[in-house]
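sorry for the late reply, my laptop died twice this morning and i had to redo everyting from scratch. anyway the thing you sent over, i finally got around to it. pasting the sequence first so we're on the same page, its 99 residues, then the predicted structure underneath. double check i copied it right bc i was rushing
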Amino acid sequence: MPQIIFRDSVRFGDLIEVTTKNSTYMLFVVDSRNFLASGGWFERKGRVPTRVQIPGCTWGGSAIKLDVIAVRGLCIEFQDKAVTSKVLRMKIHRETSLN
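ok and here's the structure:
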């Protein structure tokens, strides 16, 4: 399992499964900044799927790492400043084309 998922390593159709300390999120890749999110906070609020942007990851403060989507031990920040608990593990399910 990867320790880090860089923005430039994903493509349309990939599904990123992220388990944090408190939740599991499924992030369908629209492009490197836009995702359809379900699980976790979105599921609890009945807002699935929700189109979101992910500016990057944070250590819990105001500093943000912009070139990543998920990093083990850091928190994912969504565009509305919502922040997940620390990422424990993540997996990319690659979109496969029949062409």
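Residues 17 and 26 are 5 Å apart (CA to CA).
thats about all i looked at so far, will dig more tmrw
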